[in-house]
Amino acid sequence: MKLCRFKKNYGKASIGLITQDDSVLDLTAAGITGLYSLLDNTELMGELRRLEKENLPRFSLAAVELCAPVDLQEIWAAGVTYLRSKKARMEESDFSATAYDRVYEAERPELFFKSLPQKVVAAGEAVGIRRDARWSVPEPELALVLNSKGRVVGYTIGNDMSSRDIEGENLLYLPQAKIYQGSCALGPWIVVGHSETEVRGWQIAISIQRGTETVFSGQTSVGQIKRSFEELAEFLFRSQEFPHGAVLLTGTGVVPPDSFTLSEGDVVEIRVDGVGMLSNSVVMV
Ligand code: DO4
Ligand code: MG
Question: Can you tell me which atom of ligand 1 is nearest the CA of 82?
Fold first, then answer.
């Protein structure tokens, strides 16, 4: 089942349930005012099946504007969870190579703050590349949707946009490499009702279009993530409360060659089996 946030006529965002025939049921009309409160329901699947049978306002998916599928959740990200990411970071910087090598093996994962919910870019909007960066890349990642108890209740697609030259120059610059205008995209919706075992069988694919040309494409499997979802969520919720839940990007396993950098006007398409496609154009910020 798919949950979304959507707008009809430039009004306030509503919470939607997307049905098999690509209709969007307006759950706000049934009194559901926040994604975070719905995701805290311990009988979520039963509740959604019940809501599906109610006579709620219904719109065609093609006729609504999808918003980023977060309302009050902070967005965090895990790093160096794939061997490919560890290798790329170690090559990017002699200075930080030991840190990346160590964190891949360490008990404690790398977790970093990525975005406030109101700054997240939705499907169809533009992600940013910093004007003071020379080497900008997208990072296609599975995103875990966590409720306020830290339970994984859904999945969406994330793009952890990164400035690799800034990150590589000095590890202390990581927040500037990772957090800037348009650096986090999520969407197009949240899928619920899948087990970790099932999701580990999904593929993550990315392609980058420049005009009519595909300038990069690559793919990986969610199964290559070194750590379990529960382990990542448990570390995030250690000594920290998220009363509205959180979204946790799980790291990238696809890294373009070092000669590649994004340009303004590129279009980044990320596909995750079981979820769909997140597509964003690129703008200089
Ligand atoms: O510390 C670098 C960031 C790592 C990251 O974002 C990733 O592996 O996806
Ligand atoms: Mg990343």
Answer: 8
Task: Using a pLDDT cut of 70, give the percent of the chain over it.
Answer: 100
> Considering every ligand atom, which ligand is closest to the CA of 88?
1
pTM: 0.97
Q: Report how far apart, in Å, the C-alpha atoms of 101 and of each of 79, 85, 95, 128 are.
A: 12, 10, 12, 29
Q: Report d(CA 138, CA 246) in Å as an integer.
A: 21
Q: How far apart are CA 121 and CA 186, in angstroms?
A: 6
Between the CA of 251 and the centroid of ligand 1 the distance, in Å, is: 6
List CB contacts of 50: < 8 A, sequence separation 6 or more: none
CA separation for the pair 270, 128 (Å, rounded): 16
Contact 135, 261 (CB under 8 A): yes
Q: Say yes or no to pLDDT of 10 above 80.
A: no
With 80 as the cut, is the pLDDT of residue 174 above it?
A: yes
- CA 188-192-198 angle, to 5 degrees, is 105
Residue 86 contacts residue 101 (beta carbons within 8 Å): yes
